[in-house]
Amino acid sequence: MAWSYCLCLCVSLIVNRLKYVCLAVLVVQNASVILCIRYVRTVPGERFFTSSAVVAVEVTKLITCLVLLLGQQRGNVKQLGLLLYDGLFCQYTDTLKMAVPSLIYTLQNNLQYVAISNLPAATFQVLYQFKILTTALFSVVLLGRSLGRLQWVSLLVLFLGIGLVQVTQEGSGGRDVVEGQSYLTGLVAVFVSCVSSGFAGVYFERMLKGSSASVWLRNVQLGLFGTLLGLVAMWSKEGTAIVQKGFFHAYTPMVWVVVFNQALGGLLVALVVKYADNILKAFATSISIVLSTVASVQLFGFAIDLPFAAGAALVILAVYMYSLPKAPTPSPRLGPSEQAPGPHNKSVI
Question: For 48-66, what is each residue's pLDDT tens digit?
Answer without folding.
Answer: 999 999 999 999 989 998 9
